[in-house]
Input
Amino acid sequence: MNSVDTRQLTRNSFLLVADAEFEGARHRLKVRNLSPRGMMAEGDVRVERGDQLKVALRNIGTVNSAVVWVEGNRFGLAFAQEIDPALARKPLQQSDDAAEEHRYRPVAAAMAQLPDETKLRKI
Output
């Protein structure tokens, strides 16, 4: 696929946060746009064209990707497999099914770290 073909894909522009794993470290990324085959991300991670990243997208899970362009702190990623970008726009899915525990749930993780209200000092 060349750059002309890529520009023909529908993109969903919105602000989404995703975690990426690169060279053994986790990085927080802002997703600037998302399509079935890739995304534009922004973050404080130094990547070069051809670098491989694993990106955790809300309601989608982990997606293998490769950097296809870099401009400042923004870069484009091509996914190894197509995704449904509409899933990332939906609210976090609630499920007790163990097979779905791989889903990315940043809000649930943050809620688990909240302090016990009975132990907080009243002012």
